[in-house]
Amino acid sequence: MTSSSFERIWNERLFVYDPSKALERQMPCPFATAFQAWVDNLFEKHLDGADRVRLNQLKLLVQDKFFELRTHLPNEHRNDDGRDPDHPCVFSVFERSIALLHEHELNLEPPPLTHPAQPALPPKTPKKRRGRLDELLFGDEDPEFGS
User: Which of the residues 33, 64, 66, 117 has the least number of beta carbons within 10 Å of its own beta carbon?
Assistant: First the structure.
């Protein structure tokens, strides 16, 4: 027997969505329940007092976990295309989680606006003096062109 709840659910009878059953339309599938438990555990530990960096890390963790689960889900649970909007599946959990993180992000104080620093000017290079050999090869300096 495997220790992972996801693998336990996967090895059991597949949950088949039947839209004709009213209760089944409202109940989340076992995959969504397992994912929701993982998200709840993650948010319980790390969401309170999270700064912008922590919120971005949480977004990445939720997104990575969603796509990790999605690759192993049966086809009827992978996409939310033909799904009844009342039926909460894995994508619904993902969508609500990202929305909650976004709400927390909007509650943070925005970063201060500052003017960018002026670009540094390149250092002036001293004018190179022409050597005796240059005068012999190229002639005298032309004052009109500065060479």
Answer: 117
- Any domain includes 75: yes
- Count CB-CB contacts under 10 A for residue 60: 10
What is the residue range of 76's domain?
5-107
In-domain check, residue 143: no
Round to whole Å and give the CA distance between 2 and 34. Answer: 15
Residue 23 falls in which region: left (phi positive, over 0), alpha (psi -120 to 50) or beta: alpha
Q: What is the pLDDT of residues 97-140, one digit of tens each?
A: 999 999 999 999 888 888 888 888 888 877 766 666 666 666 66
Which one, of 122, 3, 107, 130, lies nearest residue 55 by Cα? 107
Query: Other CB atoms closer than 10 Å to residue 128's CB: what's the count?
Result: 7
Which residues, in sequence order, are CB contacts of 39 under 8 Å at separation 6+?
Answer: 62, 65, 93, 97
Taking residue 18's Cβ as centre, other Cβ atoms within 10 Å add up to 9
Both tokens assigned to 83: 């799904």
How many folded domains does the chain comprise? 1
